[in-house]
From TrEMBL:
The lineage of its organism: Eukaryota, Metazoa, Chordata, Tunicata, Appendicularia. One of its GO terms (biological process) is L-lysine catabolic process to acetyl-CoA via L-pipecolate. GO terms for cellular component: peroxisome. Keywords: FAD, Flavoprotein, Oxidoreductase. Residues 45-396 form the FAD dependent oxidoreductase domain. InterPro entries: FAD-dep_OxRdtase, FAD/NAD-bd_sf, MTOX. Its cofactor is FAD. This is FAD dependent oxidoreductase domain-containing protein.
Length: 418
């Protein structure tokens, strides 16, 4: 049967502060003191990559009083990586306990940033998890263990119920405004005195044991005490230059927007079927970006590995993959929901994934350079916890204690690594 109802009304939380919160980047740029080579007697910690993780790391370091220089090959808010767009899911629930443990601090840091920048970043709306009955039991056990609110009563939710699937609603789930999150973190970094340079495309770097020298492709050079690499889809190429072969899979993925009926109302929906021959993992976010269009993305199902510098080459796109993707989208929509026009997506937007074989992050010191640190391989689920990941990378760079088992994130877990 089809149940039509509402999650938390998403529109109620889109207040004028959020809608009108657009930073004047020309003004911001005029206030930035660009760091010239060797201009500071106290060399900074350099962070390369101004996506969600890089900016969070730079902010974490600056909050501790460190001199920080943040470098970006494009510009803040660009759409070439993995941190752009109006929506990312935030949730506590993970089958891997290590991520559930990281989320309380991530939530606190997002809330702190909202207060510091007077901007709304997280909208609570609930996440409906649709999975096999056995996986549902795993979900409810994790949620119960961590004292998280949930319900398996879905009488008012817009789904086609089936005995084949299990349903559990995580009440604390929500949507982060990704663009605003990165911008707010960047603005707070600048407010605290952080330094920033855009248009700096990394060529190479070296660590002499005391000073790290970082060079750009157009001949610029900066020096620092430490270097944190948060290079997203470019991490594999950059690390390979230093003899570190991490098995990162660089994927060009797509987010699509599908037309819904005006009365259609839903929060976040995560459809994860791994137990049968028909394997798929999709998620929906509420109607937000475009009127009467719902965002639908797949997680890890399709594989078009690309060079991030050549991702727009039409010869690199697989027509067979695109056709299979559309067919699967339509089938999953029709299987689980009514109220969505499954004929074709209205808008399709690209995004990059950087996957590890085990879908765990890489957070570690460079195997050959003691003053270089790596944040990579976030495997499509790193945005929500990026503030806490930034804290971990800051701790690594400063040699401070980390309250997590870091073996899961070690470079050494990959056989090809030195």
């Amino acid at each position: 049967s089809v149940r039509q109802g509402k999650f938390h009304d998403f529109s109620l939380d889109l207040d004028l502060m959020t809608i009108n919160s657009c930073f004047d980047w020309k003004t911001v740029r005029s206030q930035i003191e660009l760091m010239e080579p060797n201009s500071n007697s106290k060399l900074p910690i350099i962070v390369v990559g101004a996506g969600a993780v890089g900016v969070a790391t730079a902010l974490a370091l600056r909050r501790r009083g460190e001199e920080v220089l943040l470098l970006e090959q494009f510009f803040i808010g660009h759409q070439r990586g993995s941190s752009h767009g109006p929506s990312r899911i935030i949730r506590y629930l993970y089958e891997k306990e290590r991520y559930t443990q990281m989320m309380p601090n991530a939530y606190k840091l997002w809330t702190q940033l909202e207060a510091e920048q007077n901007v709304k970043l997280n909208t609570k709306c609930g996440i409906l998890n649709i999975s096999s009955a056995s996986r549902k039991n795993i979900y409810t056990e994790i949620l119960s263990k961590n004292n998280l609110k949930f319900t398996d009563k879905i009488d008012d939710l817009p789904v086609k119920e089936s005995e084949e699937f299990g349903y559990v609603l995580e009440e604390e789930g929500g949507v982060l405004d990704a663009n605003l999150c990165v911008r707010a973190s960047f603005e707070q970094f600048l407010k605290l005195g952080g330094k920033f340079m855009d248009g700096f495309k990394l060529k190479d770097f070296e660590d002499d044991g005391t000073i790290v020298t970082v060079n750009s492709e157009d001949g610029k050079s900066v020096q620092g005490r430490k270097l944190v690499l948060a290079c997203g889809a470019w991490a594999k190429k950059i690390l390979a230059q230093t003899g570190v072969e991490i098995p990162l899979e660089i994927i060009k993925t797509e987010t699509s927007y599908w037309r819904v009926k005006p009365e259609f109302s839903a929060g976040i929906i995560d459809v994860n079927n791994q137990e049968t021959g028909d394997i798929y993992h999709y998620y929906w976010t509420p109607v937000k970006e475009y009127q009467n269009l719902i965002k639908i993305s797949y997680h890890g199902t399709y594989r078009d590995e690309v060079d991030p510098d050549e991702r727009d080459d039409p010869e690199k796109d697989s027509k067979e993959r695109a056709a299979k993707q559309l067919e699967d989208h339509q089938r999953v929509i029709e299987m689980h929901f009514e109220g969505i026009d499954s004929s074709n997506p209205v808008i399709v937007e690209p995004c990059m994934y950087t996957n590890t074989p085990d879908n765990d992050f890489v957070l570690d010191v460079h195997p050959k350079m003691k003053n270089v640190f790596i944040g990579a391989g976030f495997s499509g689920h790193g945005f929500k916890m990026s503030p806490e990941t930034g804290e971990i990378l800051a701790n690594l760079a400063l040699g401070e204690e980390i309250g997590y088992d870091m073996s899961f994130f070690s470079v050494k877990r990959f056989e090809k690594s030195p």
